[in-house]
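Example record for the data management plan.
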Amino acid sequence: MSAEVVVELESCATQDAHAVFSALRTSFSSDRAADDVPVEVTGHGSTVWTTTFDVSELKAAAEPRRLTAPVTVGLQGGYWAVDQLCKALAPAFTVHILGMAAGDQEKEVELRLESRR
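Corresponding structural encoding:
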């Protein structure tokens, strides 16, 4: 059973991408260093930030984070792993499930995150 989840953020403010990734790094190990801050790239098209998290061990619960606008997040991984990552987002953000596609051993989930009220 894979414990890795690919997290993809697209078309959101750089500071919002940083808020989401920071919250997740509080809870899980990542393939990126803690000081690896998302940077906006100029040019045509939208910027996509992608990071992989290992959800096999919950380090700590994330504190609520502020977002400048709702953020759409794509998750891809094994059923259990994606569920664990979704649970870890709940203390930091209000989480809305927008859609899901399920396969044999993996699923993709699209979420909308908002600042907690």
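Summary line stored alongside the record: DSSP finds two helices and six strands in the chain.
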